[in-house]
Amino acid sequence: MVPKLTYMLAWVMTWGAVWLLVGCAVTPVPLTPEDLEQRVQDDLSQLTQYQEPVSRPITLYEAMARALRFNLEARVQGLKEMVAHRQLDLAHYDLLPKLVADAGYAGRSNFSGASSRSLTTGRESLEGSTSAEKNIYSSNLTLSWDVLDFGLSYVRAEQASNDVLIAEEDKRRTANRVIQEVRSAFWKALGAERVLGRLSFLDDWVSHALSETQIIRARALETPLTSLQYERELLQAQQEIQQLHQELSVSRIQLGELMNLEPGEPYELVMPKRTPLVSKVKDSLDELERTALLNRPELRTVDYQKRINSKETKVAILELLPSLNTNVGGNWDSNSFLFNQNWLSYGAKISWNLMNAFRYPARLQVIDAQKEVLDVQSLALTMTIMTQVHVAAAQYEAALDDVKLTKRYFDTQMKIAAHVHQSWSLNRLSEHMVIREKVQGLLAELRYEMALAKLEMAYANLLAAVGEDPFPVNLSVEEGAELAMQLQDRWEWLAQHATVSTLKPEPKDEGKHEQTQGLEGGPTQEEGVAQP
Fold first, then answer.
1. Which of 50, 196, 261, 499 has a CB 3.0–4.6 Å from the CB of 265, allowing a cystine?
2. Over the Cα atoms of the chain, what is R_g?
3. pTM here?
C-alpha cells in the first residue's frame, strides 16, 4: 500500500513541476521590426477608409460636415458613446435571473467503497461495498435569482444610463471644438488662396528693389540714411509677409487634417456669401451667462456625475440588507447505483454579511466627500464659464472692431496705391515709392484676411462659450450633402434667433440654401463688415 501511495505522490509532483515550469516560461516579447511595419501598413490603409473622395469644390458647410463625419477625434468620441450604450445594454442583462448549465465528469482508478463498524460492539457490521461507478457523468440546469443582486444591478443600470448621457455631452464638446477649428482653418485657407498667389511675384519685385538699394548706396545717388530707411521698410514688409504667408499656408494643411484628407490631397474651396451684421453682445451678457450655465456640456457632465454618486447611497443601503437566493433546477447523473438518475431540485437560502454594518459609516463618508468634490467642481466650472462668456464676448467685439479697422485701412491703402501708381506712370514718383505701396497694399490685404478668420473663430468661440450647438441634433446622418444642408440651416437659425447677434439677411428664393452665415468672402469696396 505504501509503495503505491509513494508512486502516486511522485506522479502528482512530477506533473506539478511540469506545469510550474510552463507557467514560469512566459517572458516579455518586444515588438519586432516586422510587427511595427505591419502596424504602419494597416494604419495607413485604414486611415481614410471611410473618406469620401473630393470631387468638387468644398463649401464652408461641407467642410464642417466632412469634419463631423470623418475627423478621427470626433469618431473616437462617437465610438466612446457607442461603448457607453453597449455597457448599458450589458447592465440590463444583470437584472435577469441566472440560468446555469453544468456538466461534469468524475473518475478514479478503483471503486469507492466502505464498510461499517458498530460503535457499541466495535465489530464490523457490513462488508465492504460500493454505491458508485468508477466513471460518473453528471449534468444540471439551474435557474437562480438573488433579490439583493437584482436591486444592486438595477442601481448599476441607472448609473450606466447616466454614463451614456456623459458620453453624449463629451461628444457635443468635441463636435463643438471641431466646428470652431474648421471655421478658423477654412477662412485662413480661403485667404491664402486669394492672396498668396501674388506673393512670389512681389517677392521677386522686393528682392530686385533691395538689390537696387545696394547700387544706389554704392553710387551715392541718395543720402545713406534715406537709402537705409527705405531698405529697412522693405525688409520689415518682407518679414511680415513671410510670417503671414506661413500662418495662412499651414491653415490649408490643418483644414485637410480636420476633414481627414490625406496630406497633400488637392482640394478647392468655395467663396461663401457675406452679409452685414449688427452685434448685440454687449446688451445681453446676463442672458448669455444664463444660457451658458444651462447648456454647457461641462456642467451637465457634473450633474450626471452627481446622479451617479447619489446612487451609491442606495447601493450602500442595499448592501446592509440580507440576501435571499432562490433556485430551481433539473439534474441527471449517470451513476447506475442511484435509484433516481433524474430529479428536480429546488431551494432557498438567506445570507447576511454582518460586517457591512460596520463598513456602512465609512462608505457614507466616501460618498459625502465625493458629493462635496462635485459641488465645489460645479461652482468652479460656473465661475469659469461665466468668465469665458465675458472673455468670448469681449474677444468677439474686439475682433469685430478689428475687421472694421483693417477693412478701412485696406480701402485707404488701395486708394493710396492707385494714386501712387498713377503718379508713377506719369513719371512723377520713383519706382521705389510704387514698390513700397504695393507691399503695404498686400500686407493690408493679408491683415484683413487674418482679421476675417479671427472674427469667425471669435464667433464660434462665443457660441461654444454659451453652449449653443452650431450643429444639428442628429449627427448620425450618413449623407454628407444632407448634413451640410442641416448645418447651414442651423447656422442661419442661430443668426436669426440666437442672442449673440441679429442678422439682416438679403432676400432669397424659398427652398434655396444660400450661404449667408459667416465672414463670407474677401475684401470688396462695396460690402460692409462681414457676418459671422
1. 261
2. 39
3. 0.74
